Fold this protein.
Amino acid sequence: MPKLMLLGDEALAQGALDAGISGFYGYPGTPSTEIIEYAQRSKQAAENNIHRTWSSNEKTALETALGMSASGKRAMVTMKHVGLNVAADPLMNSAITGASGGLIIAVADDPSMHSSQNEQDSRYYGHFAMIPVLEPGNQQECYDMAFYGFELSEKYHIPVLLRLTTRLAHSRSGVITKEPIPQNKMRKPEDMYQFMLLPAIARKKYQHHLELQNNFLAEAENSLYNVYEGEANSKKLGIITTGLAYNYLREAFKGEKIPYPVLRIGQYPIPEKQIHQLYDSCDELLIIEEGMPIVEEQLKGLAFPCLKPIHGRLDGYLPRAGELNPNLVAKAFLMPDTTGKPVPEIVVGRPPALCVGCPHSDTFLSLNEVMAEYGRGNVFSDIGCYSLGFMPPYNTINSCVDMGASITMAKGAADSGLFPAIAIIGDSTFCHSGLTGLLDCIYDKANVVIIILDNSTTAMTGGQNYTGYGKLEDICSGLGVEKEHIRVFVPLKKNYPEIINIYKEELAYKGVSVIIARRECIQTLKKKNKMETEE
Amino acid sequence: MKQDIILAGVGGQGILTIATILGTAAINRGMNLKQAEVHGMSQRGGDVQSHLRLSDDPIWSDLIPFGSADMILSVEPLEALRYLPYLKEDGWIISNSTPFKNIPNYPPEEDIYKEIRKIPNYVLFDADTLAKEQKANRSMNIVVLGAAITHLGFTLEEIEEAIKVIFAPKGEAIVEANLRALQAGMAAN
Ligand code: SF4
């Protein structure tokens, strides 16, 4: 079969396509976006009628994928780590209902927060839900684990969590592909109780889920992806690696054989047998894991520390935060530092900024004029390109917490008496998590002004479609915003007088106002124009 | 052969195209490749780097270790300096000298050039002007690549082959412009 040059994300998507998937669902989020984007571009996916559209948010995506699985077909849902918080409800419950057709929940974590608000580790969610977790260590494994993940899922009727990290998701390498297999046939669940979590049924199913744990452990202990390399010169140290850490370890030793026994973990729950074997045969352990110290914590048992020293992120052998790299791993072995010349002092930071000509820029600048008399601290914002409105020259926004938090935080502030209380939210984000918050505002007649930045796309992740496109006014009025307080303007310099007037009028209104600032993202506009000229 | 290359620049300057061309040339030779890219928010005019690793042997890490890059290939002079901790003692800097000023505190160009000249092996040249002279305004990145070819152990023909394949879908004129840019860069070395 051909060798393709693929990003980790793309390798996973291609693996799923070759493994007979019927549908991808997800919400864009760096570094997971390219999984579905790849599937959307794929000719193979188009020819086989594979479903691959974006969902409103990660929760609806996971639930939809669960529905496809309940119909016997293979499905994958994709998201970034913080997206899994949004989907945590169906995640925990799908562990109890189980799956029917293979169900893979692919989550891309972002240690070092290259493009995120935190660096939580999705393996904890896998542990929490007590479902098998797969963690590829390279692009080939991303591909292969799609096949394996669907098989494992169907064998135990359980969703499988597949965890990527930024560096693998966004790094390219050669991948050898297999012969594609056909999609599953449609098949309704044999057990009509399977997806029915009424307490009496759920209790039974939870018991069954607990009983499955031994099987998951046995699968991990026999997994091809948990590799024990016991032959070693020295038993002074035993090493456990997860994810990309093994690569960094080999790099630190310049590709030479590692002098200590190594256990490489790619499937969870953590394989107890191999861990005991390593623990028994070595004097000390070093745990090098990409992300948070979940293996280390499980081994240490905080209340009853083990007798042998265990090193890792918790005792400073490796930094507690951030992604790993070959130098950090080398340092844990006290190897000499290889770092080249320091960065000269004249080098200054070059932070990201709104594109020149970005529509948000005029919305912010005009709002600043109106807000001058109130000082800072009244503008709650959300997650998207417009988070950059925090930085100079705008300094417009004062918060950015999670998807949808702008509207609800503004409401809470208004409830406490703050005036004015303004929320700024993108159009895609509004459809992801803003609707219910808006409903809260309407229900309570909160005195808020909600500015929806409508650039016709999910811009921050590169311009994906979203579910509420073209329907924002209808959605708002349908939810109960009064028609005369749904205002629309085009953010352009020449419109400033009109824009400022709209702001002032809606600030003066005691109730819920929605102002839609509508002009397309210049990046998606450029792409469209380019496509037209090329056609 | 083994080459560890840091590609540096500002979002939108085309460093990923350089990576694709070098990667294609390496694969045509039957080499292994790993290429870590930067996606997402940092691309909005922020600094971007890509780690490109080519080798006849297996490649383990997607990231190049500090102090072991054979080359920093930069399409912008300030960005060439940002990654010095990656460069090995006798490594090369190949950099465009035309600044990309999207920050208010951009340091004086002469100070930047002075720092680059402290590196034993460097090529610092005005790739923007060369691209314009070749009527290939949008191929500044390819000019910079041209200046790097011989230091990377590739032949002009190998890189030309890759360029032809990669730009073919965009038409003959674009392929030709890029080939001119490449040759001009190579001559500037
Ligand atoms: S990508 Fe679009 S929305 Fe984002 S900063 Fe650029 S122009 Fe603005």
In short: The first strand of chain A starts at residue 3 and ends at 7. Chain A touches chain B through 50 residues (CB under 8 Å). The mean pLDDT of chain A is 96.
